[in-house]
């Protein structure tokens, strides 16, 4: 679970497993697998850091063990 801040300043918790993608348009939009979209104050990079830290804390295998540059390339490709 990661904490995010809505544009109105309210905090909410999002299940990282439910995040389908993150867009930066320039606002940061989190798209969930349910189809719901969340506009948040955190930047794209801040959200990636939170997601990687959350995955690491849960011990869930993911691509976070991959070199930082490779992770960014993977995420950039996912946003296209």
What fraction of residues sit in β-strands? Answer: 25-35%
Q: Summarize the main sheet.
A: 3 strands, antiparallel
CATH class: Mainly Beta
Mean of all residue-level pLDDT scores = 84
Number of strands: 5
The appropriate CATH architecture is Beta Barrel
CA-atom Rg in angstroms: 12 Å
Order of helices and strands: EEEEEHH
Give the assembly state of these chains: single chain
CATH topology type = OB fold (Dihydrolipoamide Acetyltransferase, E2P)
Number of individual domains: 1
- The number of helical elements comes to 2
Q: Which consecutive residue ranges, at least 5 long each, have pLDDT under 50?
A: none
For the record, give the distance between the C-alpha atoms at the N and C termini, rounded to a whole number: 25 Å
Helix fraction, binned, reads 25-40%
Strand arrangement across the biggest beta sheet: 3-4-5
């Amino acid at each position: 679970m990661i904490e995010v801040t809505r544009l109105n300043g309210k905090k909410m918790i999002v299940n990282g497993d439910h995040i389908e993608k993150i867009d930066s348009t320039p606002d940061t939009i989190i798209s969930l697998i349910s189809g719901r979209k969340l506009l948040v104050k955190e930047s794209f990079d801040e959200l990636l850091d939170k997601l990687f830290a959350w995955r690491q804390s849960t011990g869930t295998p993911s691509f976070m063990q991959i070199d930082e540059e490779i992770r960014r390339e993977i995420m950039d490709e996912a946003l296209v």
